[in-house]
Amino acid sequence: PKDRRKSWVAVACSDGAVRLVDTSPQRAASVVRTSYAHGVEATAVAISHEGRWIRKNNGEEVLEGWIPWGT
pLDDT tens digit string along 3-33? Predict the structure, then answer.
């Protein structure tokens, strides 16, 4: 059977973007979402424990519904 587990990494990029990267097993890593929210440079990111939101820069930005579960 095919491995259907999903792995995600949120990345703070030097161009100011936050990118969500699908790093699932058996696949090449690929960017699935990008945000340049409010023009604020991204220096740190965190994904919530339950995977419902991504925050950047000590919580000053909240990106909800970003993780495409089931895709």
Answer: 567 788 888 888 878 888 999 888 899 998 8
The answer to whether 27 and 63 are in contact (CB under 8 A) is: no
Q: Which residues pair with 34 in a beta bridge?
A: 19
Question: Distance between CA 42 and CA 24 in Å, rounded?
Answer: 24
CB of 9 within 8 A of CB of 21?
Answer: yes
Residues 70 and 62: their CA atoms lie apart, in Å, by: 22
Residue 56 buriedness (CB in 10 A; 0-12 / 13-18 / 19+):
buried
Write out the DSSP string of 34-56.
EE-GGGPPP--EEE-TTSSEEEE
Cα pseudo-dihedral 39, 46, 11, 14, rounded to 10: 40
